[in-house]
Amino acid sequence: MTVGQQMTVDLAPGSGVYAWDRPQLIGSALQLVSAAGGYPSRDPMQALFRAVSPGTAIVSSLSDAPCLHARPRCMIAQRV
Asked: Cα–Cα distance between 63 and 38 in angstroms, integer?
């Protein structure tokens, strides 16, 4: 990407009750412009990033079950 270009990330919910968390950004080359959907809703996660400087960036997101954030937590199987 060149400085000023934008990148959209669209993540559909997984099977069952899984939903994507808000994307995390490591590095200074990108800036999060907007994010919508994802956990705690079952709406697709949509994020817009803009390249703001030369360099590298890592964009990541996790998907898990909302009941894992409840008290008490659910006891569903987990995997890496």
From this structure: 9
